Write the structure tokens for this entry.
Amino acid sequence: MEFKALIICEIVLAVSYSVFGAPTTSDHQVAFSTGLTNTLHIQDHTTVVFDEVYINDKNGYDRTNGIFTAPLPGSYVFHFHAYCTNIDTVMWLELHLNDKVMASVSGFNSHTVGSNTIILKLKPGDRVAVKSRARQQFSLFGLPDQVYSTFTGFMLYPSRVYSDSALG
């Protein structure tokens, strides 16, 4: 499973780099890809800690708290996917940039799947995490050989000047 996830991450990077252009030097290549290999019970604004780290170039993802901290300024692509198996509950996850909601996924009932992708301009020290929405309780399903919930990010291109806009 780890090999498959690494191949998928490399394919996403290769396609993105061929379309948008790769970072100019290896000093600017930042990427991480993580997965959930156990069922995680989530409640009330919890940060999802993805326990399996497939790649963590520049060590931006912290496996102890689930937070990616930008090591370099630039435009970054983030993907997050989730699979919930609860019955009669709402799954609601949000991608946060420094505690501000930037993107969400939601679904209701059994076997809910959600995913989202966003490009953000980050400065060094900016924090990105996947969190549950306040007052929500649900379980994200995962097993070592069944990884359905993932969190991936990589630098699209570096920047010298930071602006507060998400895109641009």
Observations:
- Helices lie at 2-20.
- The chain has a mean pLDDT of 85.
- The radius of gyration is 16 Å.
